[in-house]
Amino acid sequence: MQFGTKGKLEGNLSGPYGATIDQFTGRIFVVDQYNNRISIFDSESGKYLSKLPTSTNDKNAQLTNPSGIAVNEMHGQIIVSDNGNSRIVVFNYETGEFLFSFGMNGKEDGKFKDIRSVAISSNGDLFIPDGGNSRIQIFKPSQIGN
User: Fold this and answer.
1) CA 20 to 30 Å from 126, out of 15, 70, 100, 119?
2) Cα atoms in the Cβ-side hemisphere of radius 13 Å centred on 49
3) Strand partners, 120
């Protein structure tokens, strides 16, 4: 099976950069880098379901060259590395609505340069490879709004 075709319309992909599967719902979250969104598909059928951000009206939710994604079912979050804005963006797991973001371009703790992925440990710690600063930053759930 395969899904997605090149383009800008919903359900199309342009520069799929990464993906993760929600093991509970079977949704596939695809980092659609050049369309500046996360496209969501059904893993059984490949059918397009929706996108993140769900609204284009909230400027805080807008992504620029997203590069990585992780699903944190434990805390009800979808976490996206927004490389073009040097930040992490967090969406609601159930509704897809924007919750908050953190980080900015820089070298100090909590700032990023060239973030390409994101990973979550079994206890909810967030691991962010900060390529431009040659380090991995680790955040406890209490540090990121949980």
Assistant:
1) 15
2) 17
3) 126
